[in-house]
Amino acid sequence: MLEQLKKEVYEANMLLPKHGLVTFTWGNVSGIDRETGLFVIKPSGVEYDKLTPGDMVVMDLEGNKLEGNYNPSSDTPTHLELYKAFSDIGGIVHTHSEWATSWAQAGRGIPCYGTTHADYMYGEIPCVRNLTKAEIDEAYEKNTGVLIVDYFKDKDYISMPAVLCKNHGPFTWGTDAHNAVHNAVVLEEVAKMAARCEWINPQVQPAPQELQDKHYYRKHGANAYYGQ
Amino acid sequence: MLEQLKKEVYEANMLLPKHGLVTFTWGNVSGIDRETGLFVIKPSGVEYDKLTPGDMVVMDLEGNKLEGNYNPSSDTPTHLELYKAFSDIGGIVHTHSEWATSWAQAGRGIPCYGTTHADYMYGEIPCVRNLTKAEIDEAYEKNTGVLIVDYFKDKDYISMPAVLCKNHGPFTWGTDAHNAVHNAVVLEEVAKMAARCEWINPQVQPAPQELQDKHYYRKHGANAYYGQ
Amino acid sequence: MLEQLKKEVYEANMLLPKHGLVTFTWGNVSGIDRETGLFVIKPSGVEYDKLTPGDMVVMDLEGNKLEGNYNPSSDTPTHLELYKAFSDIGGIVHTHSEWATSWAQAGRGIPCYGTTHADYMYGEIPCVRNLTKAEIDEAYEKNTGVLIVDYFKDKDYISMPAVLCKNHGPFTWGTDAHNAVHNAVVLEEVAKMAARCEWINPQVQPAPQELQDKHYYRKHGANAYYGQ
Amino acid sequence: MLEQLKKEVYEANMLLPKHGLVTFTWGNVSGIDRETGLFVIKPSGVEYDKLTPGDMVVMDLEGNKLEGNYNPSSDTPTHLELYKAFSDIGGIVHTHSEWATSWAQAGRGIPCYGTTHADYMYGEIPCVRNLTKAEIDEAYEKNTGVLIVDYFKDKDYISMPAVLCKNHGPFTWGTDAHNAVHNAVVLEEVAKMAARCEWINPQVQPAPQELQDKHYYRKHGANAYYGQ
């Protein structure tokens, strides 16, 4: 079932090592078919260089595995919460990519210091709090998703397709699995340059709002005209 | 038209990923034919690994597209202003290369800390101010060029073939498209080493003027004799 | 003798350059056959691109060379002490990998700042003291092992399969040679992200204990269920 | 003439890009034949990927070019001074490698923070002062060599085969051209880890003298026994 989606999700997963975003199996990509409400996700613990499209696991939004020889990624409950709440997204990525994870470990959101950031993400990339012990004990992976959804309940998850989980790492999402990987790459570049820019100038301030607006809205929304 | 120039500009564009200066499509190279007053530039939003010489777009200095299946890079109005004002240059590069962009985001020019810098660029690499909201709203890409040209109106754009745009990224130029890419690579190396050198010694001062002069003028001008 | 183990140890050694953990010959991997009490280790001073499985040296736990055309790694006495004291390990790695060595040179243990660390190593990765002049003069390489063993005498070497030797570099171990290399890669990633996270937030604190517990124990012990 | 030496020096030059020590043509290697007193050096300004053994230039110690289609590297007078004064060396390397150059630009010698450094270089890697304007004007490249030789006049250039020239970059030397490149690689690794180790622990002190002694003398001199 969902052979085309499995292929797409497989290819999106393989972009993670290509872009240097994963070591070993530290990442996973999923994609959803909104018509059937089923999503496809990387299996748990399979090495990237042994992965095949047929290894992808098919899940429903109640968390039932419908097809697959392996267990789904242990982060599956997080993906599921995001798919349920963010109805306009088609793909999700989780990695431990080195720069985004360094910010997550530092417990800081990433200020918008420049146009590379503003071209894709509007405003500061948030870092959500740690789960409490009770939340961890009850359902760690699910509650990670619940916390992210709660953070975005009064915010726009389309113009900010990324979040850092404190002491853990990033999640990104997008219109489909490939677009979510694209945003994971952008996040990593932005995280790297934001850190270095603070080290070059500890008094640095975010980019002027009108510059952020110009770059975001020349690529997104009704008046977009951008491409380099 | 301009088949040879299109080939050169195509090849110069392909050097950007080779030298690690671009992620996705975040960069563009152009080259000008001074006899006809026409310039050739990368199309907008085309992936580097799908680019062909025939995709290059031919423009005149009034901003009219004369040939090309795609739109020209959205930074074309910036290139155009530089070509009009800097009559001795033959090529221009814009990237979001990681170290130069970190300095641009930090809002600082890059002091000349050593001979690697002085071999190619004379003095501090400038960082020009943000555009005002009015300048952005009126014509963002054009006014980026106008601002750079205004900065250089009483300075030598030949001995300083690079500029940082605050909260954005670098532009470099040169005698032709390849030379402009060469300067983009130099800028990135210099930006990286300048940052690290400040972190190793926060009290570091620019290189002595006589050393800067020696290195710049042994490679440039009437008395040049250099090559390693 | 031990042809299968020699092949495994050879392959594990070759993973060091693949993962960017060694320059020149600055590293070595060994593996032990607990039935015979013999271990196999990289020869001394042989370049990685000239290494063959047949070059591996077979040693007993009294330090006698039983087979091999070359001398064993000069770090062999350190490996031997670890094998004698840590009865549940099957492989050992020593490298001068750049980030772990930078922490070792800095004389600091690596705090657990995130889940990447907690997934594999429980708590702060220790940095053991310098050997005294007397300990160096008596038997430097052996006493390096004695010092590590002494540090772990009241600690769990299974849940902390890594140590930094002050002003020197890391040792890691594992269930076999490959697993020890896996831990060396994890250590390097963790060391890199811990340094950057401190630079991004100098007031950063270790990850909450309940988060460390969750990540370590979802992958290790009776209740493990993890895989990404 | 000196075909074997030209081949060796060519191959040693080609190791610079392989080890990531050069951008463009920013480096050069030479080797000397002590019997004839002639040395062979990279030509000036030739790209590495176009270099051939036959392009190497043969020089005598009076600075006369005896063979070669190109000019010798413009750093030739520096090499020449080192060969004249350091009678036991057989090869010299100059690069603008990024970490060593960052220390040179910072104007600081590199303290010995660990055994990676002590395995090859005994004590702090020195950073020599800027040349005066008079020294630059008189004979810049020659006086760079004179300054280095003067610094080492009461020191051992064998146990310290490297120097940083302030605001410029490193020179290393060795028993032959390949060994000099080996030392250039070591210097770069050591420079990188020394910087990071200071950032991880700003109060870091050099490695204990007895540890430096142990590592240097287990690899060098009459009692050497080392190999990993």
Task: Walk me through the structure.
The structure is a homotetramer of 228-residue chains. With 228 residues, chain A is α+β, with helices and mostly antiparallel strands. The first copy, chain A, has a single domain, classed as Class II aldolase/adducin N-terminal domain (L-fuculose-1-phosphate Aldolase), CATH 3.40.225. Helix content of chain A is 41%, strand content 15%. Chain A contains seven helices and eight strands. Chain A has helices spanning 3-18, 76-85, 98-106, 115-118, 133-151, 177-200, 209-219; strands at residues 27-33, 38-41, 57-60, 65-67, 91-95, 127-128, 162-165, 169-174. In chain A, strands 4-3-2-1-5-8-7-6 form an eight-stranded mixed sheet, sandwiched between helices. In chain A, strand 6 (127-128), helix 5 and strand 7 form a beta-alpha-beta unit. In chain A, helix 2 runs parallel beside helix 5 (133-151). The longest helix of chain A has 24 residues, at 177-200. The mean pLDDT of chain A is 97. Chains A and B meet through helix 6 and helix 7 of A and helix 3, helix 5 and helix 6 of B. Chains A, B, C, D: It holds the Pfam family Aldolase_II. Chains A, B, C, D: Belongs to the aldolase class II family. AraD/FucA subfamily. Chains A, B, C, D: It comes from Muricomes intestini. Chains A, B, C, D: Its EC number is 5.1.3.4. Chains A, B, C, D: This is L-ribulose-5-phosphate 4-epimerase.
